[in-house]
Specification:
This protein is of the alpha+beta class. 15% of the residues lie in helices and 29% in strands. It folds into 2 domains: 215 residues, Galactose-binding domain-like (Jelly Rolls, Sandwich), CATH 2.60.120.260; 37 residues, no CATH class.
């Protein structure tokens, strides 16, 4: 009962509760390096496309990697780096990092992916895009996007050594969604286009992004049984239909086997609240800043 009351108070104060999901090496701390390393543990790199010429100075595998952040007293340090290291990703078409997680898309959950991003490295050009994506794999093992968010670098911002959060949210997973039950995939990828952006006169290729602190969260199971986006009398009616049912109950929120007052307390905590994952206020502010700085 103490746990239920705690959930009730938290839900009433802040909307749907979120649970963190593991993103291995999400802060790019491995492997440890004294300077830079093209190796990034747990992450996979996008395959080298046929058109990329490695005789131009960089191997494809060198277009992403990890680096040691500078000491705090150095003016070039990333002042909000999570840990000691971050990653770089060159602004070249098809360059990306991805990994398939153990976690799966669960029916009834909402998901939020957050990545700390800095644009502008090495004289990055104007209007350069990068995307963060959540995906699943189809029967042919292809990555299929569930959702994506793109941010665009603007040269007037400069190369500011402070990470801004780029946030992607996807709505409640339905039983009919093809990704329901599939493993969650996380991807960070340059959205420059081949061959247009390789044109030496008009193309946008060049420069690099700094990346750090990749986070994934899912909503706690909430009482929006009708999936209409809000907890209201329709959800209460569904609970009434299964009141004190202790076998095959579909609205048992506590997982104890019966629909009772403990479940009712949780419904009360979400009453008339929109059933979507909402970022904390500071993250919303950061998103507004990103839209102002990176978007048209």
């Amino acid at each position: 009962m103490v746990v239920v009351v705690g959930l009730y108070v938290a839900a009433w104060a802040g909307g749907f509760q979120v649970e963190p999901l593991s993103v291995p090496n999400g802060s790019f701390e491995s492997p440890q390096t004294l300077f830079v390393s093209p190796v990034i543990d747990s992450w996979r790199k996008s395959p080298k496309p046929w058109w990329y010429d490695e005789s131009g100075g960089y191997l494809w595998t060198q277009l992403t990697g990890v680096f040691l952040n500078l000491p705090p007293e150095d003016p070039e340090t990333i002042d909000n780096c999570d840990g000691q290291q971050a990653a770089w990703l060159f602004a070249v078409p098809e360059v990306g990092l991805f990994q398939d997680l153990e976690a799966t898309y669960e029916v009834g959950r909402f998901y939020r992916l957050t990545v700390g991003v800095i644009g502008g490295g090495a004289n990055m050009k104007d209007n350069v895009p990068i995307a963060i994506r959540l995906y699943y794999r189809d029967e042919q093992d292809n990555k299929v996007a569930v959702g994506a968010t793109t941010c665009v670098y603007r040269t007037e911002v400069g190369y500011v050594k402070h990470l801004s959060d780029v946030i992607l949210e996807i709505g409640r997973v339905q039983e009919t969604d093809v990704w329901a039950g599939k493993n969650i995939g996380v991807e960070i990828v340059s959205e420059l286009v081949f061959p247009t952006d390789l044109d030496p006169e008009t193309g946008r290729a060049g420069g690099f992004w700094d990346l750090d602190h990749v986070r994934l969260e899912k909503s706690a199971v909430g009482p929006d049984f009708t999936a209409d986006g809000i907890v209201n009398f329709e959800d209460l009616a569904m609970m009434a239909q299964e009141w004190m049912v202790c076998e095959a109950a579909t609205v048992d929120l506590t997982g104890e086997g019966c629909v009772d007052m403990d479940d009712m307390a949780i419904v009360a905590g979400f009453w008339l609240q929109e059933a979507y994952v909402q970022p904390p206020t500071d993250s919303l502010t950061v998103v507004d800043e990103i839209q102002a700085n990176f978007s048209e």
